[in-house]
Amino acid sequence: MPLDDLDLSRIPRHIACVMDGNGRWAQAQNLPRTEGHKAGEHSLFEVVDGCLDAGVEWLTVYAFSTENWRRPKDEVRFLINFNEEILFRRRDELHERGVQIRFIGRRDWRVPKRLLTRMDEARALTRRNRKLVFTIAFNYGGRAEIVDAVRSIAASGVAPTKITEKTIARHLYDPQMPDPDLVIRTSGEYRVSNFLLWQLAYSELLFTDTPWPAFGREELFEAIARYQERERRFGGVDGR
Ligand code: FPP
Predict the structure, then answer these.
(1) What's 119's domain CATH number?
(2) Does the first or last residue of the chain, that is N or C, have fewer Cβ atoms within 10 Å of its Cβ?
(3) Mean per-residue pLDDT over the chain, rounded
(4) Per the domain annotation, does 171 fall within a domain?
(5) What's the pTM value of the predicted model, to 2 decimals?
(6) Is 155 a domain residue?
(7) What are the distances in angstroms from CA 96 to CA 15, 90, 127?
């Protein structure tokens, strides 16, 4: 699907991706699972590229969940090193393209110091960029985010009757992040898997059988086209 076929006046402002299927894609070709993650880097940067061209303002990707620690030790170590390496290797290119890098997730003892340092460097380097906010969810879980928000609200001493949906939204990891308009999950799984639980209340959900390493710019535009075919009602009746 070429970019020209999209309605440029109705591009989703925020797209979130569950980059699923790297392991299965690799195993299907008798490669180690880690080769799937490596191929997934290419897809990710194609999607960043497509978002920049289409005028998407926010892109959020699920890089490592709070549940991913349960994977075999070697794969966990690979994913951590891989994330760290990508941040180092790609940050200048993202910076030059006007991308602002942000992170959501728990900065707990399980996340190695040097990865936290890379995250802080990438965020600081790109913090004035305005073309696209690219948020990486690392050691992220939607329920953990809500627990953390509730803890911080309780610690603030606010009266229970004063707590509204806005209060909760203000205490999420990134209070500036708009709710996603479109959530894409690749590789034929029809689950949300603890991603952006609070934020996706009204998001359009799009599931595709394509594994993440085979996803790219064209598939992103196809997903946007399918989003544009849908009518969003937000609980009302008239599409507003
Ligand atoms: C899911 O595939 C994918 C992941 C757990 C991680 C994907 C990470 C990247 C592509 C790198 C991202 C890096 C940055 C810096 C954003 P899976 O292993 O669950 O696949 P499977 O379901 O086939 O096993």
Answers:
(1) 3.40.1180.10
(2) C
(3) 96
(4) no
(5) 0.96
(6) no
(7) 21, 10, 12
Neighbouring C-alpha atoms within 13 Å toward the C-beta of 153: 21
Exposure on the CB side of residue 176, measured as CA atoms within 13 A: 7
Distance CA 139, CA 136 (A): 10
The catalytic position among 4, 5, 7, 20 is 20
Catalytic choice (5, 7, 68, 139): 68
**Residue 232 pLDDT:** 74
The verdict on residue 192 lying in a domain is yes
**How far apart (Å, rounded) are the C-alpha atoms in residues 36 and 101?**
23
Q: Total structural domains in the chain? A: 1
State whether the beta carbon of 47 lies less than 6 angstroms from ligand 1: no
Residue-wise pLDDT tens digits, 39-97: 999 999 999 999 999 999 999 999 999 999 999 999 999 999 999 999 999 999 999 99
Supply the range of the domain harboring residue 75.
3-141+177-228
Q: State how far the Cα of 77 lies from the Cα of 24, in Å rounded to an integer.
A: 19
Contacts of 93 (CB under 8 A, 6+ apart): none
Position 26 in a domain: yes
Q: Is 20 a catalytic residue?
A: yes
Q: What are the residues whose beta carbons fall under 8 Å from the beta carbon of 235, sequence distance 6 or more?
A: 202
Q: Are 124 and 114 spatial neighbours (Cβ–Cβ below 8 Å)? A: no
